[in-house]
Design brief:
The protein is mainly alpha-helical and 106 residues long. It has helices at residues 2-20, 46-51, 63-84, and strands at residues 56-57, 60-61. It starts with a helix and ends in a 22-residue tail after the last helix. This is DivIVA domain-containing protein.
Amino acid sequence: MWLFAVLVVLAMGGVAMIASGRGGSMPPAYDDRPDVVLPTDRPIGAQDLRTVRFPLALRGYRMSDVDAVLARLATELEDRAERSDPPSEPSDPADPSGSSGEPSRD
């Protein structure tokens, strides 16, 4: 019984010393995640997407890594669309002739 009480007191004293900072400080944390490797000097290609690997987190993938890749893909797709398609006049998709089907009221 006395032995158990002494062990509890020693454990509480050790916790108090560490909490007060006498046990030394923790080393600085560093990011040990592998980088998502994508080319920076050219647009992302299909093969780049097939080989990309995201680091795992506790419940799946790290959202910040996936969000960064998706944002870059969205930007590149928008840029490609702007370069290849000139802006056109809006039209009604149901009416291929482009007229609204209503007589003009002049």
